[in-house]
Amino acid sequence: MTTPQNPVRIMGIFKCPVATSMETFTQKLETLMEAVVALPCGKNISKYELCVPNRGLDAHLERLGMPSPQGTIVVTAEFPTVENLDALFVAPEIITLVEGAKGDIDMHIESCTFAYDKISKIGN
User: Fold this and answer.
1) Distance (Å, whole) CA 16 – CA 20
2) Residues of 17-36 as b/e, b for ≥16 C-beta within 10 angstroms?
3) What is the rounded CA–CA span in Å between residue 95 and residue 90?
4) Fewest CB atoms less than 10 Å from the CB: which of 1, 9, 42, 110?
5) Can you tell which superkingdom this protein's organism belongs to (predicted)?
């Protein structure tokens, strides 16, 4: 009998380039993620999410003396096992796609992506 493994999660934090609108930047990252999961190696991803900011709290945050938020998108992806993550990252087609996307999203993807543990708590 095998012991179930916890999923492996990674997160990428992407700042919107100054010369790009947030709408355009969001579309570029959506298109990139759709291209990733469309690849044969994309089957290794259990799920992914794009956390795109909205401006619903800007006025409230300003009243609290906090600066306006910068245009940033957080992308999370979950893999059943570390082997699935490895299979995705070593696939030649993903390497080619990511290299091409670096210029398109004006960022070095590897410099802002990391694994994380999800700790959920309710109440105190």
Assistant:
1) 7
2) eeeeebeebbebbeebbeeb
3) 7
4) 1
5) Eukaryota
* Ramachandran quadrant class, 50 (left: phi over 0; alpha: psi -120 to 50; beta: rest): beta
Q: Are strands 113-116 and 72-79 parallel, antiparallel or unpaired?
A: unpaired
Beta pairing class for 47-51 and 72-79: antiparallel
Name the amino acid, one letter, at 58: D
Please give the Cα distance from 102 to 13 (Å, whole number): 13
Can you tell me which residue has the tokens 């087609």? 93
In the chain, the domains with their CATH numbers are 8-53+65-115 (3.30.70.100)
pLDDT digits (tens, 9 = 90+) for 80-114: 999 999 999 999 999 899 888 887 776 665 568 88
